[in-house]
Specification:
Strand content: 15-25%
Strand order of the largest sheet: 2-1-3-5-4
Helix content: 40-55%
Number of domains: 3
Largest sheet: 5 strands, mixed
Structural class: alpha+beta
Shape: elongated
Length: about 700
């Protein structure tokens, strides 16, 4: 007997070592899957926001009290508000979703491993890591990745309760379910069946306790979740009525006041099962892929039913019973696949759980040849993993390559310096040839958001949609004294569009290769020649140490005028003088009509390195005038020191203040005085206007208005 025991010791040690090695291998595999999941979710995270993400930022920017009083699901908005304290970057505000997505992959591994073993857990985690839809929601500043994580946490609690009821399992279930309910209303299709299954699990495993006591203990998670989920409604009872209206339980609103809510929709069963489940969530777009996931899913459901019948019943409820019920229940909103995002991990779990079921079935069929059974079973399981994971990876590659990247940030950065010129003088619009009611919203909302972000506190009016070139011409005539900032969403009529604009600016990358941006300024007469410096032969009337710089230094176009001087040279001042003239005026007439308001504007950039001893050392912008008696005066309009990036300077020219009433000559002087450094100037113009317009480089013809 002792000899047999001693003989078995090495075998036991070998088994222990194999088990330990297997655990370490599983941990390493899980770490690699999580690293893969994190890598694909961080890729392209800094792309511009789209409409729904912008609405999230808007809703989270209000005070906390307003968030609690305005939404039944405030949790994600509170998280976003906390992130806004750190910054407004796209990658930063998407990081909660990224982390929730990563945690969701780990939670799915835990849930699947408890139901079907660690190998199935690794397969489910791999499927989720490569899932096109889960990657998308994990890269979006929206709540769907968070609600998936909370749903999986609650599912882990349910599985543990079915194994052995405990306080920890009930707490995990409660916190997960409450978190899901407070994150998004779609949890209402997921949480009630889950709580019912948990209630049944606790009651059926009484452990010698009376039925009444077991039912009371089982009801505690239900009461806790319901209480937490109802808190937002208690803060604002009107929301309960609004929710009832949305799900179709309340009276229909007046179509004249709310035409969208007055309509009713039904969930399409064919769309749900074929499009949502098969194509969107499982990426099974070929007959082979669809057959594989169907077989594995059925096997996984059967395996779950044998081990945890209540969990399998819960899966059937959320996969079949709830969707079928929604096919006849009217709702006052359109159904979309994102409302069923909680089904994504359930499908991944069932398909992964089908792999060990398939493995065991093949081994039993080939019992007569154990070795062949193991080889065939392993080969089929690996083939199933390859087909499912390959489908996910293929669709993920296609999705990542075709993400909408309509980057309007460059256009917003260009337009933002001009938004502070006064309310009512700017109108932002997009030229759209799509006749659908929602066409072009992918332009309007982001453009408005990035304008606000680039110029905080500036007046940004609503963005208007214009259909075609004729609509743009009518809008130009309707607002003749307004800057029209136009985003052209269509490559048609590109030449006509550019002909209407005083400035056009293409940018890339874009979903639409011909997308460009143009500015139609109010009509003006420019009294300064060569203010744009694009013609190398055009120079100021008098200049010292002046050069035309290249594209790197220019504000726009090819060249900017540059003043540069070394400290200690013989020149105390280097300057450029721009003569102002009124085309067509008589020789004895004033160069500027005293009865007409005028404005000087220019773009200026400077870097002063050293200063001389005088108080007015540095960069100066002056107005030099000569009156009818020949008296010359210089009026200082601007003084700068040290450093400034490109900035727009605007100076009203007022007779009797900085203009003689009988001015005969007038010039704009840009000087670097008693200092060393460099000054760049561009877009210098004097206009017969009370407020500055966009630089036009000459007179512009007026529009042909009806």
């Amino acid at each position: 007997m002792e000899q047999d025991t001693v003989a078995r010791v090495p075998e036991a040690v070998a088994r222990l070592r194999r088990a330990r090695a297997g655990r370490w291998a599983a941990r390493l595999a899980l770490a690699l899957v999580l690293a893969l999941a994190l890598w694909v979710r961080l890729s392209g995270l800094d792309r511009p926001f789209w409409d729904d993400e912008i609405y999230t930022v808007y809703d989270a920017s209000v005070p906390v009290s307003s968030i609690l009083n305005s939404t039944a699901t405030p949790l994600y908005y509170l998280i976003t508000k906390g992130m806004l304290l750190l910054g407004q970057g796209e990658a930063l505000l998407r990081m909660p979703s990224v982390l929730a997505g990563l945690a969701g992959v780990l939670a799915l591994f835990a849930a699947t491993a408890r139901l079907a073993g660690p190998a199935a857990g690794l397969a489910a985690a791999l499927f989720m890591a490569l899932s096109t839809y889960h990657v998308f929601v994990s890269q979006e500043a929206r709540f769907y990745a968070v609600v998936v994580f909370f749903g999986l946490a609650a599912l882990c609690g349910l599985i543990r309760l079915c194994e052995r009821p405990s306080v920890g399992a009930a707490a995990l279930l409660t916190l997960g379910a409450a978190g899901a309910m407070l994150t998004h209303l779609s949890a209402v299709f997921f949480v009630p069946p889950l709580l019912a299954a948990a209630f049944a699990a606790v009651v059926l495993r009484r452990g010698g306790r009376p039925l009444f006591r077991s039912a009371a203990l089982a009801a505690l998670p239900l009461v806790a979740v319901a209480g937490l989920a109802l808190v937002p409604f208690l803060l604002s009872p009107d929301r309960l009525h609004s929710l009832a209206v949305v799900v179709g339980l309340g009276p229909a609103p007046d179509p004249a006041k709310a035409p969208q809510l007055a309509q009713t929709w039904h969930l399409s069963a064919r769309e749900f099962f074929l499009d949502y489940l098969r194509r969107v969530f499982l990426s099974a777009n070929t007959p082979v892929e669809a057959a594989v996931v169907l077989v594995l899913g059925v096997l996984g459901l059967g395996r779950t039913a044998r081990r945890r019948p209540l969990v399998a019943l819960f899966f059937l409820c959320v996969l079949v019973a709830v969707p079928l019920a929604l096919t006849w229940m009217p709702a006052r909103h359109k159904w979309a696949h994102r409302y069923f995002v909680f089904l994504l991990p359930v499908l991944m779990l069932l398909v992964a759980a089908g792999l060990p079921a398939l493995h065991g079935m093949v081994r039993r069929l080939l019992f007569g040849s154990p070795r062949a059974g193991r080889v065939c079973a392993g080969a089929l399981a690996c083939a199933g993993i390859f087909v499912v994971a390959g489908a996910q990876a293929r669709e993920l590659g296609i999705s990542q390559a075709s993400l909408p990247v309509t980057d309007l940030r460059a256009a917003a950065r260009f337009a933002s310096p001009h938004t502070k010129m006064g309310a009512g003088r700017h109108l932002y619009c997009y030229l759209d040839f799509d006749k659908s009611p929602s066409g072009g919203t992918h332009i309007a909302v982001p453009f408005q958001y990035y304008l606000r972000r680039e110029a905080p506190g500036a007046f940004v009016p609503l963005v208007r949609r214009v259909e075609g070139m004729e609509g743009l011409r009518k809008l130009r005539c309707e607002f003749p004294d307004t800057h029209l900032w136009v985003v052209n969403c269509n490559g048609e009529n590109a030449e006509a569009f550019a002909g209407l604009c005083h400035f056009t600016m293409p940018w890339s990358p874009n979903r639409w290769p011909d997308l460009d941006f143009g500015v139609i300024a109010p009509e003006t007469v420019n009294f300064v020649e060569g203010g744009g410096f694009e013609n190398p032969d055009t120079m100021p009337a008098r200049a010292g140490n002046v050069a035309l710089s290249g594209r790197f230094e220019a504000w726009r176009g090819i060249h900017a005028l540059t003043l540069s001087k070394e400290h200690g040279g013989y020149r105390q001042r280097c300057e450029a003088v721009f003569s102002v003239s009124r085309p067509g005026a008589a020789e004895d007439a004033p160069v500027l009509d005293p009865a007409t308001p005028h404005v000087l504007s220019l773009m200026l950039r400077y870097h002063v390195e050293r200063f001389g001893p005088k108080h007015n050392d540095g960069v100066r912008v002056l107005l030099q005038t000569m009156d009818g008696k020949g008296a010359v005066r210089r009026h200082e309009l601007f003084r700068g020191r040290y450093y400034s990036p490109w900035r727009r300077l605007v100076f009203p020219l007022r007779p009797g203040a900085n203009l003689p009433p009988d001015v005969r000559e007038c010039a704009v002087v840009i000087a670097l005085e008693n200092a060393s450094g460099t000054v760049w100037a561009d877009d210098v113009q004097v206009e017969a206007k009370p407020a500055a317009t966009f630089f036009t480089n000459g007179a512009r013809p007026g529009p042909e208005c009806p």
